[in-house]
Design brief:
mainly alpha; globular; DNA Cyclobutane Dipyrimidine Photolyase, subunit A, domain 3; Serine Threonine Protein Phosphatase 5, Tetratricopeptide repeat
């Protein structure tokens, strides 16, 4: 007779592809039985949003790194593909597991799926336990004085900070009793067979040059940022021409590092070095915005589909002209800071946060295109395409979201460029056809004298496009559209 402690336990990895500060993995280690680590690529369950292309690329390499890390401590990562509510119960039965553990998710479809799987496992005598590992605070832990969810960031974050930083992050296990199971259930998938990488064409060359995917890469990037960027974060985080942001968002998206690890490391760096508290606080507040986005997603599950503020349901969006939308996609709008951002996105799978706001405002307010079109494009092209932050941020820019920037706040892409890329270094990097243009003109080349353009090798409308819309006219049109809404 098999002793319960000797029965296998299954760790179901999802958006938590790491060993350190991984509560589900720690629980499996403490369980005492053999540990089976699995990842299920589920593209068929109802309501789950398929990953975009850049996220699929990242997932491939993150799984590769996780498998290598598990191998070093005595376990392996088994890859499966199909409906999670079929695979997980079948797998538990096939290997004789008495428990399945995982990290919680917060989308409505994911919650429903996980609840269903817990019920199915219970029916066959297998316990299931979920853990907090993706967030600092559970969405239900924070409530207003009236007992409802927060809709404004500042009081939300004040309430969150009042709960404290919690216990220290968990250390990674150094050894696991990995379960070496045979084909009783069926063969596991090879990583290549999941077909996560682009092939024809292979557009991921820029991504490969830009990122060190995996848990080790996340730790390295955090260390570099704490040493080189944190001390100037509050003053320089909006500068597109400088490496002043953490660039941790894709690592967070796939759980290669936890928010708690980042929080504790930032706090420690602030106490250990000569870093002004405002820099640490400003950086930690960015983690807070991510938490706020998940708070919204949990309490308002249709965040991607519906306007958070219903009055925007009557907003007179223009028709999503495919040609105009394509020019925005390709970074051919004629506004250099916008085009640089869109090209950075395509080349690297990310975009500077300040520039994200600029390009989003341009799509929504200059081109009068529904914010959902931009959210969809970012979902497909961002390595950090996050189910909470992506729609929450787009709605914030659109003015339709929680604690949103007012719609009548319309970014002037010229002024934004001059302020946050004063010498045009960011534009020159991603819009090389403007590389020889003097800084005085680089954010509005159409105003440059003809001889200056000629010397720089620029012919507007040919080597670089003329603006697809006049800023002043676009602003007036957007304000008129907003004025038509019932206040």
């Amino acid at each position: 007779m098999v002793c319960p402690a000797q029965k296998p336990i299954i760790v179901w990895f999802r958006d938590d592809l790491r060993l350190a500060d991984q509560p589900a993995l720690a629980a499996a280690k403490a369980h005492g039985g053999p540990v089976l680590c699995v990842y299920v690529l589920d593209e068929v369950s109802t309501g789950l949003r398929p990953l975009g292309g850049a996220s699929r690329w990242w997932l491939h390499h993150s799984l590769e790194q996780l498998a290598a890390s598990l191998s070093k401590i005595g376990a392996r990562l088994d890859l499966l593909k199909g409906a999670s509510d079929e695979i997980i119960p079948q797998l538990a039965k096939a290997v004789g597991a008495d428990q399945v553990v995982w990290t919680r998710r917060y989308g409505a479809a994911e919650i429903a799926l996980d609840s269903k799987i817990k019920t199915l496992l219970k029916q066959q005598g297998v316990s299931a336990e979920s853990f907090k590992g993706q967030l600092l605070f559970e969405p239900w832990e924070l409530q207003t004085k009236a007992g409802g969810p927060f809709k404004v960031f500042t009081p939300f974050w004040r309430a969150a900070l009042a709960l404290g930083d919690g216990e220290a992050p968990l250390k990674a296990p150094t050894i696991l009793n990995g379960l070496d199971w045979d084909a009783a259930f069926g063969k596991t998938q090879s990583l290549a067979s999941l077909k996560l990488l682009p092939t024809k064409p292979d557009w991921a060359g820029g991504l490969r040059k830009s990122w060190n995917v995996g848990e080790a890469g996340a730790r390295a990037r955090l260390s570099q940022f704490l040493e080189e960027g944190l001390a100037h974060y509050a003053e320089e985080r909006d500068r597109a021409d400088r490496d002043s942001t953490s660039r941790l968002s894709p690592h967070l998206r796939f759980g290669e590092i936890s928010p708690k690890q980042i929080l504790w490391a930032a706090r420690h760096a602030g106490m250990a070095g000569s870093i002004a508290p405002r820099n640490v606080d400003k950086f930690v507040a960015e983690i807070g915005w991510r938490e706020f986005s998940y708070h919204l997603l949990y309490h308002f599950p249709k965040l991607r589909e519906d306007n958070f503020q219903p009055r925007f349901d009557d907003f007179p969006w223009g028709k999503a002209n495919k040609k105009t939308l394509s020019l925005w996609h390709k970074g051919q709008t004629g506004y250099p800071i916008v085009d640089a951002g869109m090209r950075e996105l395509w080349q690297t799978g990310t975009m500077h946060n300040r520039v994200r706001m600029i390009v989003a405002s341009f799509l929504i307010k200059h081109l009068m295109i529904n914010w959902r079109e931009g959210e969809d494009w970012f979902w497909d092209t961002l390595c950090d395409a996050d189910p909470a932050s992506n729609p929450a941020s787009w709605q914030w820019v659109a003015g339709s979201g929680a604690d949103a920037a007012p719609y009548f706040r319309i970014f002037n892409p010229i002024i934004q460029g001059e302020k946050f890329d004063p010498d045009g270094l960011y534009v020159r990097r991603y819009v090389p056809e403007l590389g020889s243009l003097a800084s005085k003109w680089i954010h509005h080349p159409w105003d440059a004298p003809e001889d200056v353009l000629k010397t720089a090798g620029i012919k507007l409308g040919k080597s670089y496009p003329a603006p697809i819309i006049d800023h002043g006219q676009a602003r007036d049109r957007a304000l008129a559209a907003f004025a038509s809404l019932k206040q």
